[in-house]
# Entry
Amino acid sequence: KFKGKVGAAAWPQGLPAPVLAVGIGPKRDFHAARWLRAWAAAGRALERAPVVRRAAFEWPASASFPMETPELAGLAAEGLLAGEYSFEAFRTRKKEHSFAFEFAGTELAAKPARAAVRRAELAGEILREVRDLANLPANELGPQELAAQAEKLAKRAGLSCTVRDMAALKKEKCGALLAVAQGSRRPGCLIRLAHAGKRGLKPLVVVGKAVTFDSGGISLKPGKNMEWMKYDKSGGMAALATVLLAARLKLPRPVVAYIPAVENMPGGGATRPGDIVKARNGKTIEILNTDAEGRLILADALSFAAEEKPAAIVDVATLTGAVIIALGHEASAVLGNDDRLVLDLMLSGEAVGERLWQLPLWPEYDEMLKGQFADLKNVGDGSAGTIAGGAFLKAFVPEGIPWAHLDVAGTAWLETDRAHGAAGATLAGARLLADWAARSRRDP
# Structure
């Protein structure tokens, strides 16, 4: 009865020994994302089968696929490790997690395949740790707690880390970020982490939105499903994972991460619809909807990122529900001011199984963000919501700096257990950005 559907896993009955069948779909439809999901399903099936202590996999003939054996092996290991993950911090009885890999056969025992699997294991350790943070509820992880955890992880990884508190942000005239932070009793901050890399190379800068809980502010969200808004910090978690991966994998390219961390609450000090604030770069913003807060905190963070004199900037955020309407949960959106950068990111997405789909960012879209009483307004006219978010952010990137925006609102977490993964954070964008940093060839 097993049909081999992508990501399906089953234990056929009536066999002398347990056998796990996992589907990768029709050969003509092969894609790294499908391969990854199949191995994630295998990892999850093994994690849920307590009697299994050791498993051997029949390795398909590599000639059957449009990828080399080392790439396939690395993705297989990443999938297994991702699939067996589950968030256990608040369970009284915790499951044990212990996957180790051994090799047999000419292809897999060769040095390139073994090196790819070793990289996957190193990355898996980082991703597990950051996923544990990403899955924490807001009562356990606010902006200050996130900053403390980032400092701890940075010290262990050999990264530099600085945290600007509310006073420092006020001194820097970060009016957009502060407008969001002021509605909560929990102070916001801006976290900067840096992997030094090779001297003489311009850094790549990743900016990640970290709203540790998003109530919508005065423009309050509907109560149904609001509990998932603890994952509005997912962009920041992806940025944190990216710079940690750069350090752990010893990438030559310097990588800097900026993580604006706030809680968006409707407290007595909260920003109101109709308020006008000034961002760090001097532009004024008319706030028409306080639930369009992510672009405000990213605006000020982008101005810091530009001062790094980077080779490129990429921001990653759970920015719009509109991206789910456009792309569902199978791909993230990418928009930017530099086609080469966008293509590089898409190619990395294809390689690691995190698909991107480009949306346009033509100058005509800028018209919908022109404010009536200020330079900009923080929402458009209701159409092209994801593009409107990107057009707003573009206004805070100086001319001449390659920049792209990843909207991961549809891919950053799973709301139910799936065959290929447990409910919770996925860290969408982190593996893609680490691969992009590893492949970066931009001139210093």
